[in-house]
Specification:
The chain is of the alpha/beta class. The protein is built from eight helices and six strands.
């Protein structure tokens, strides 16, 4: 007979295996396909040096199994050529804060974009406000399904944020969440976890990143000073060399002949003995 404690441990192990396997495959329930050709072309037209100065931080909400597939959204952003992309859970908030401080200090041309999903909307708002005293400016903040019942959405935008895009789920939470200071996008027929992978979300985020990338000044490498004025030397004819090397029988040659040989071999045809 199996004891009750053994049965509970076996059930707990099976449940853990199920959750881990479900977590690994949750992204298949909200797949994100490759960018549309026109979207990809618009982002690829930006110079690489501009895109590399755009730093995107994606903050997940209470979704430890990645059911909403925010990691897929991260991969989508990277496929557009924006490789300075960071993804984190709720507990990465302080690491994100330190990374943004470091980048702001080391890269004067850095441009920042925050993306928050669910409770990550509130964290993104807190993060932006916490860095305002240090002079950090966010070109754009994107809220994904912030109209959830766990925490109220921000009532006003952070003072150090430029553009705020507020993408809202529909369904049971579709009756509220709009903000007159944000660009509201309502995803018809969607629910909370559909938001990160929704085609309208992908289109809006690509447009935001393209706009931020265009604001980064393009740095064109210039040649070192004086190199542009450098000219190739004028070709000149090479004078055939006449050997003036003495041998053991030179003492038998007339002095005048020896001088003629040295004169022909010396630069300018001058006598080297003069």
């Amino acid at each position: 007979m199996v004891s009750q404690g053994t049965w509970r441990r076996a059930l707990a192990c099976k449940l853990l295996v199920f959750l881990l396997s479900a977590g690994a495959g949750c992204c298949y329930l909200h797949p994100i396909h490759a960018p549309q050709p026109e979207v990809l072309a618009a982002c690829q037209s930006l110079p690489r040096c501009c895109k590399d100065h755009v730093h995107i931080f994606l903050l997940n909400g209470l979704d430890p199994m990645n059911y909403g597939n925010l990691t897929g959204l991260r991969d989508y952003v990277q496929s557009l050529g924006f490789h300075q992309t960071y993804y984190g859970q709720i507990y990465h908030y302080w690491w994100f804060q330190s990374q943004i401080r470091r980048i702001h200090r080391e890269d004067p041309e850095a441009h920042f974009v925050l993306v928050g999903f669910s409770v990550g909307v509130n964290l993104a708002d807190f993060l932006a406000r916490s860095l305002k005293p240090e002079g950090v400016y966010f070109d754009a903040i994107v809220f994904l399904s912030g109209n959830h019942p766990l925490a109220p959405m921000p009532s006003e935008p952070p003072a150090n944020a430029g553009r705020v895009v507020n993408i809202l789920a529909d369904g049971l939470m579709g009756s509220w969440g709009e903000r007159d200071w944000a660009e509201d996008i309502r995803l018809a027929g969607s629910w909370h976890f559909d938001t990160p992978s929704h085609p309208e979300t992908l289109q809006a985020l690509a447009e935001v990143l393209d706009q931020v990338g265009e604001a980064v000044p393009e740095v064109i490498s210039e040649p070192p000073p004086g190199l542009a004025e450098f000219q190739e030397p004028t070709p000149r004819a090479v004078r055939p060399q006449v050997s003036a090397k003495r041998d053991e029988w030179d003492f038998l040659k007339p002095v005048s002949r020896e001088r003629e040989v040295k004169k022909a071999a010396s630069p300018g045809g001058k006598d080297s003995t003069e």
